[in-house]
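Researcher: We're teaching a course module on how sequence relates to structure. For the next exercise, students receive a sequence and then see the predicted structure as C-alpha cells, so they can try to spot secondary structure elements on their own. Here is the exercise chain.
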Amino acid sequence: MSKESKKVTDMAVGRAQARFVRVTPMKARRVVDLVRGKNAVEAVATLKFAPQAASLPVRKCLESAMASIVDKREKNGLDVDRAALYVAEAFVDEGPTMKRFRPRAQGRAGRILKRTSHITVVVRQAEKKEGAR
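Model: And here is the predicted structure for the students to work with:
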C-alpha cells in the first residue's frame, strides 16, 4: 500500500477511546453489541434512549469518533456524508480493578471489586457504489 492510498484510507476512519470508565466491562459490552455494524446516526439515537447506565459513555465515545472523521475529512477538503457513516468496530476491554474492603461480621473484611472499562469505537464512511442512484 502506497503512502498516498494509506493517507486517503486514514481519512475515511474515525476512532475514539474512552478509558478508565467506571462501568463493568460485561455491562458495557451489552450496550456496545446493540450498535456494532449500525448506521452511526441510528446508533446515537438507539443509545440516547437505551436504559442502561453504560449507554452514556458509549454514546459519547461514538459521537467523538464521528466528529473525528468529520474533522479529518473537512480539514483535507473532502465531503462528509454523515448519513453514510457506520460503526465499523466497537469493543470493550477491561481496565484496572479498584479493590475496596467492607467490614463484615466477626472482624472480617469483605472485598469489593470496582471494575473499569476501556471503550473503543471505530467509525467508517461507507463506500459509494458505482451505478447506484
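Model: If you want an answer key for the exercise: Helices lie at 3-11, 25-35, 40-48, 55-75. Residues 55-75 form the longest helix (21 residues).
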